[in-house]
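Cont'd.
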Amino acid sequence: MNLIFGISMVSIIVFAVLLIFTFSFFGWNVVKVKNNISMGKPLDRSDRKKERLKTMLLVAFGQKKMFQNILPAVLHFFIYAAFVITSTELLEIIVDGLTGSHRFFADSLGFFYVIVISTIELLSVLAFIATIVFLARRNLLKVPRFQMDEMTGWPKLDGNIILYLEILLIVCIFTMNGTDEVLLNRGLSHAHIEGTSFGFAVSSFLGPLIFGGMETDTLVVLERIGWWGHLIMVFGFLNYLPYSKHFHILLAFPNTYFSNLNQKGQFNNLSNVKKEVENMFDPNFDPYVAPPEGEAIAEPERFGAKDVQDLTWKSLMDAYTCTECGRCSSACPANQTGKKLSPRKIMMDTRDRMVEVGDNRRIKGKDYDDGKSLLGDYITQEEVWACTSCNACVQECPVNIDPLSIIVDLRRYLVMEESKVPGELATMLTNIENNGAPWQFSPADRANWINEE
Amino acid sequence: MSNSISVPTVAQMMANGETPEILFWVGCSGSFDDRAKKITKAIVKLLNKCEVKFAVLGQEESCTGDPAKRAGNEFTFMMQAMQNIQVLDGYQIKKIVTACPHCFNTLKNEYPELGGNYDVIHHTQLLNALIREGRLKIEGGSFKGKKITFHDPCYLGRANEEYEAPRELLQKLDAELVEMKRSKSKGLCCGAGGAQMFKEAEKGDKEVNVERTEDALEVKPNYIATGCPFCNTMMTDGVKFFEKENETAVLDVAEMIANASDL
């Protein structure tokens, strides 16, 4: 008896330590992510709250944009639904883990408990199928958008790791429930309920089928492996998220809430440029006037973006939200015609660089400069100039990421800070400045068409 | 085709003590590009026929700044924008129609923040309104029974979510309107946007307009209808690339409507 009490005390302590570590580490990462996103420039997205909520409910919660492509949408929905429902079970895991109880809610919730667990089981079966299909699409069928240049190495592995973990998790769930069904049937389950079966939708059949012939000792061990495996998988997954493309399961919600609600064709007007041009138009403006006393002369702000700090916080949140599905790149006209540009790579580069800058700041101090930048070391000029600004990438993104705004900010830096612009575009810009048209025509000839045959 | 057109400038109209019902923003392409000028004329003929009291800015019009903005030059864009807003506000312009989705998008979406507030519509929207008001009547004419496919301009479609206005017009031609495999929000760019019109494309294995023209030619149309002068150029070049000029013509929706009305 003392031995069993001892084991149960040890397991409670181990669980408590694991629980504290899981949530502390996750909390630490959340703060890190928040700090990294805050490196971006300010942007006001606090307006139109109702519209924002509606967008979030439709696009993130309802997965509206996913359903443009029905097969992956349905499969993805299985995993999504299974994930959401399975998360509720976390509550029981925590109660059981901390008190040493077994299936704490089984007795008090009665039939409702059977419904919840059965739903989890049914969705887990569907999620299992979906996971297998997803693995096949990535590795056997080689769906083109998973085979692009940026999808080698870690991004490829990351995509597969999640799917393997998913399978392991489901196996653990069914091992746990299946063995417990058999144990209950033998009158040996630790759950405080009457009867010979829990009545779980899948394991009441699957359990006896797979585990029915096993020794009771083996079942007890397997049941514990299932339980611990299940929770270690969930805790591990939670802490894997911030390092993985899979972070979208959490960030999809804020990211769609803070969507750009304007027409996609509307590019923002740079306020610092606006001010300078307004001054040029203002006959009373004196460029030599000293700033009012006590006010420091502000350092001139950079035009456009060279590095991640020059992008808005929303662009940085976009980068964390990207799950590298590649719908943007397969819709991109430049990408489809063999150009280097891939909107997905723009997002992945932005994220990698953001994490690098964030780590540098944390470890080596706020002002540390590693001499690298997003533009140049991650994204090349060739990529930036291949964009037709057609908005197909923005349209396709299931979580409302906007790669175009990053591309435009990078162009702005190239043109306005470095004057690095393709020769023909320099001519076009000069023409607009001199003739008010992108071609070399005299403004005096603008109305000639009226009298031409 | 009748050649007499009446195109007053706002300055002339104002001098006569009149104000235009709507300003026709011709755009650089519509003013200078030989192919696009034909689209401009078709619109003018339709406006004349419907007795719309419109005017143009003439020599006072200047580039909206769209290509400069897409190319990343905010300075040039804002110089153009503020100069244009001064002119437009000077004439107290309230309503603008344009045949170029790039001008349309810039005037409609990017000028308000700089102080230029106008009711801006695309010519396909105006023509629809004229039909609804009973001012314009169209019959199929030479397009009866022909196969037409419409290429969505990015800056009218995805950028401003106007997919129906051009299609409604085309449906009035008693023709067979066939959609390409990628259309409306899924429509593929012609390759001209984002200032690409003014430069060589980056290295790749294909031109974007060729890829898009393939989509169009797949449905074997008699006509590829466009609603943007730049798309028109790109699709025309694409059809030439495939040497299909004899089977497939590229026309702006306005040209087709004018043509059907024997203008």
